[in-house]
Amino acid sequence: MIEQIRQELCTGPVYRYNPSIPELPLAGFGFLVHFVWEMLQAPWFTGMTEASHGSVVWLCVQATGGDVLILLASFWLSSILCGHRQWLLKGDLNPAVILVITALVVTIILEWLATGPLERWTYADSMPIIPLLGIGLSPLLQWLLLPPLIMWLTRRHMLGHIALRSHNAG
To answer: Structure pTM?
Structure first.
């Protein structure tokens, strides 16, 4: 059953030709893109506009670290279901959808916990709230918009690496 799911999600010989570690560019691009998002959404969180620049940057670095962990965990789940870690090379839609859905579910749970029972942070009045979920719109949009961009950048990087390697070898 698991093997059949893997075959349906990801097939093709292209995966065998890239021994590189996709987690490195994924984490690198993920950190850069998520950090920009975290900085841009900072005013929608209570106390961020009054805080010093250094403390806002540090809080955003910490939040970005968590975002990268969510991204990598979601990638690994997609890779397990796909049967290998090279699925980004082919540009398959199914593992990418699994990654986004996993990240969304994790984010919804973490945002709900952080703004509810754990009281880690609160939203500013300007943050639009999703009524049924009770979480901010910005964190939800973050995981709908950024993963496709990050996966595209990572795929382009990996394909460029393969092209340069084959050009230099030939």
So the answer is: 0.86
